[in-house]
Amino acid sequence: MDLMAIVLLCGGLFFFTGGAIGILRFPDFYSRLHPAGKLDTAGQLLALSAVALIILDDLSREHLLTAAKIGLIVVFVYLTSPTATHAIVDAGVRAGLRPWEKRPAGETTDDDLG
Amino acid sequence: MKTAAALLVLLFGGLLVYASLEFPAWGDPMAPASRHVSPHYIERSLAETSVPNIVTAVLADYRGYDTMFETIVIFTAGVACLFLLRIFGRRSSESRLYRHLPTGITLRISRGGAVPLSSKEFERIDLQWVPYSVVVRTTCRLIVPFSQLFALYVIAHGHHSPGGGFQGGVILGASIILFAIANNLRASLAWFSEKLAVLLCGLGVSIYVATGALSFLLGGNFLDYGTLSKPFAMGAVAARSLGILMVEIGVGITVMAVMVHLYYGLASAGRHDEGL
């Protein structure tokens, strides 16, 4: 049980790290939202399941209730986090922000500000 | 006038700094607060109020006045934002779009034109705003009942776990904002009108003050919930717990109404006509 929890936790940390690097390193608004929406959702799924497993290690009624609450958190974040990302992307499209395109280095145009 | 205002600000700011110099040092074990106030709360709050969450006991019972005026600050801020954000009396200045549902034809009715409000065949369309995509709307509609249930839990369970009126009120307000996002501003206004929001703003504060005044009328001090034991036929300790709950409900109602009203004003640029 502990081993499983450790593996899940490490997996969650891996996704969170990837998400953080992606947010920092990707070139524009839309591509930064991609790791923010996907990797964080995956990371919280793995990390919170690990926490639930650790709690369930010592099985009792209260711990079962706590694990069920953690499960509910996972479900709701799984629903709302991608939706929030979708809404933010939607807002960017409506505001007229253009997606990033690869250009030769040093060349900038007026489009860079959207 | 400006110089006078600046002088007043400087004077009172200076007074504040001067007064705070007299405070005991940060974390001083010999300060009055740490010598007898904190130990009293920590050791006796459960026995005196039967509320396991000390923060709630201090916030709503021992420091009831403080929280009452905090709620009044929120109420005042809400009223101030009402006057700042709201634009009255420009309803018919723009043209409106209506879709005739059986035929799908869109009509533009310009200023002063007859508006087919009574007919069920016409659906109002926003001029400046396109509804959200189906993903956002469906998720919002799904989340609303759960977040409302959770908000009620946070308000009612504030005695035992982190939470209380302020937090629960914010969640409740957010659920109504989600409802507005899931549909649109007009659907939300039909369900939770501006008048209701403003009324609830005042009602919440009134519930708080009325709870205080009730204990006053029953022979105790203002906000001394122990006296509520007589009409509710319970012990003085349980009555204090009940008083905290009543006060928290008042706070929650005010916070919710202020949040919803702020959202209405911001989402529609003060018009309350069309918007998110």
**Kindly, what is the distance between the CA atoms of the first and last residues of chain B, rounded to a whole number of angstroms?**
41 Å
**What's the helix count of chain B?**
10
How would you sum up the global shape of chain A? Answer: elongated
Distance between the first and last residues' Cα of chain A: 51 Å
Number of helices of chain A: 3
Mean pLDDT of chain B: 84
Q: List how many beta strands of chain A DSSP finds.
A: 0
The chain-level structural class of chain A is mainly alpha
Q: How much helical structure, as a percent, in the residues of chain B?
A: 55-70%
Order of helices and strands of chain A: HHH
Strand content of chain B: 5-15%
- The ordered H/E elements of chain B are HHHHEEEHHHHHH
- Biggest sheet descriptor of chain A: none
Beta strand % of chain A: under 5%
Residues in helices of chain A, as a percent range: over 70%
What does this structure look like?
The complex is a heterodimer of chains A (114) and B (276). Chain A has 114 residues and is mainly α. Helix content of chain A is 75%, strand content 0%. Chain A has helices spanning 2-25, 29-56, 61-94. In chain A, α1 (2-25) packs antiparallel against α2 (29-56) and α2 packs antiparallel against α3 (61-94). Chain A is elongated. The mean pLDDT of chain A is 85. Chain B is mostly helical. Chain B has a domain at 46-91 and 130-267. Helices cover 64% and strands 5% of the residues of chain B. Chain B contains ten helices and three strands, in the order ααααβββαααααα. A three-stranded antiparallel beta sheet of chain B has the order 2-1-3, with no helix packed on it. In chain B, a hairpin with a 4-residue loop joins β1 (96-100) and β2. In chain B, α2 (32-49) packs across α3. Chains A and B meet through α3 of A and α5 of B.
